[in-house]
Amino acid sequence: MHYFKYIDGELYAEGVPVKRLIEAYGTPLFVYSYKTLTRHFNAYHEAFRRFPHIICYAVKANANGAILRSLAALGSGADVVSGGELYRALKAGISARKIVYAGVGKTDEEIALAIKKGILMFNVESEQELVRINEVAESISKRAPIALRVNPDIDPETHPYISTGLKKNKFGIPIEDALQYYRLARQLKNVQILGIHKHIGSQITQIKPFVDALERVLLLADSLKRDGIDIRYLDIGGGLGIRYNDETPPHPKELAKALFPLLSNRDFTIILEPGRSIVGNAGVLLTKVLYTKKGADREFIIVDAGMNDLMRPTLYGAYHHIIPVKKRKRKKIVADIVGPICESGDFLAKERQLPAPRQHEYLAVMSAGAYGFSMSSNYNSRPRPAEVMVRNDKYYLIRRRETLQDLIRGEVIPEFLRK
Ligand code: LLP
C-alpha cells in the first residue's frame, strides 16, 4: 500500500503532482512519501503490540537522514552494519539504546565506537569476532552487550544473493554450534550476553521460513536456559517482502499472528529489523526519456537513470513497475528500458510491455525506496540524484543533486602532476 496514484491521468505523490517535483529538481529524482513510510512503520508497531518489542529499522535499505528522523520520531531503533550507519542513526536522533549492530566484518574502531556510544547489542557473527569484541571492550574498560547471530539453515526461497540463513551463506554461527559459543561468551569478562539474533534473507514472501527459523531459535533458547544462560532479547531480523509485481507478501499482522503461538508464555523482548517493507514502496525514481530507438532486434527506451542510480534490475534481475508520469492513449510496445551507462547490463527493465513513451516524457520506476539510493554509485562519473520527501501537499528536498565538483571532492593530485 502506498500513496502514489493517478489523479486525472497525472501521477501524484500524496497531494503533489510529481511533474512539479521534476520541474523543481530535475531528473533522475528519488521521491519518498512520508505518509507511506510512517504507515508501514506503524503497521509493524501495531502488529507486534502484544509483545514487548523494538523495531530496529535496517538503515542499509535507505540511510537518508530525513527518513531516519521520520522513523526515529515514531520510536524506531536501528539495525546498523557499519560505523557509518551507526553515525547516521545517532545523528538522526535514534537512541543508542535501540541500536543493534550486525555484519561479519566489524573493525576494532567500529567496535570501540559502538561500545562507547552505548548501543543495545552487537549481533556477533563469528568466534573470532566475539573474542575481539571482548578484547576491545577490555581495552576501554567497558562491557559489551552481545547476541550471537545464528544461522538456522532455513531456505527463505528468495534470490540467492539475498538469502542469508543457509548453511552455505557467510552469515552467523551454525545453530548447532551456538551453545558452545555461548559458553565461551559466558567465560569472557568483558561481554554481556543479552540475546539471540537471526536474519534469514530478504524479500521473503512466505510466512513459513520465519516460523521454521523461530522454532529452531527457540530450541536454542531452551537449551541455553538449561545451561543457565538467560536470553532477554530475541532479534528475529527483517526480510518481509513487498509487492514489486504480482507478489503477495504477508502483512506484518499475519507475521505476528503466525509467531504469537510460539512466543506466548515467554518473556522475551522481540527485536525486528525491517528495511524493505518499511521504505521500499514509499519511494519512486523519476526519470526522463532521452531517446527512443529501434534496434535490429528490439526497441529501446533510453532514460536518464541508469544502473548506477538503481542497480537492483541488473544485479538481481529484479522487477520494478515502470509507469508514465502522465497517462496517455498510446499503442503498447515491448521495449528494453535502458540507462546511459556504457554497459549492456545497464537496464531498468527488459522486454517490458508499456504504452509507447516519447522523447522528453517522464517515467516513474516504482518501489525504488529501498536499496535504491543506498546502493547507488558514481559509475561513469554520474552525479547521484536528488532526493525529495513529500508530506501531504508539501515537499522537501532531503538531499541535493550532486554536482560535478562533488565528483572530484576528496581527490588529491600528486605534486609532480600539478602545473
Ligand atoms: N537485518 C539484517 C541483518 C540484514 O542483513 C538485512 C538486509 C535486514 C535486516 C533488512 O532486510 P529487509 O527487511 O530489507 O529485507 N540489496 C538487496 C537486499 C539486501 C538485504 C541485505 N540485508 C536488494 O536490493 O534486494
Would you give an account of this structure?
The protein folds into two domains: 4-31 and 280-408, Beta Barrel (Lyase, Ornithine Decarboxylase, Chain A, domain 1); 95-274, Alanine racemase (TIM Barrel, Alpha-Beta Barrel). With 419 residues, it is α/β, with parallel strands linked by helices. α2 (34-47) packs parallel to α9 (252-263), α5 (108-117) crosses α6 and α8 packs parallel to α9 (252-263). A hairpin with a 2-residue loop joins β2 and β3 (16-17). It has twelve helices and 21 strands. The strands form three sheets. Strands 4, 14, 15, 16, 17, 18, 19, 20 and 21 form a nine-stranded mixed sheet that branches. Strands 5-6-7-8-9-11-12-13 form an eight-stranded parallel barrel, surrounded by five helices. Bound molecules: ligand LLP.
User: In terms of structural class, how would the helical and strand content be classed?
Assistant: alpha/beta
Individual helix count = 12
Identify the CATH class of the largest domain: Alpha Beta
Helix fraction by DSSP (H/I, runs of at least 4): 25-40%
Hetero groups: ligand LLP
* Count of discrete domains: 2
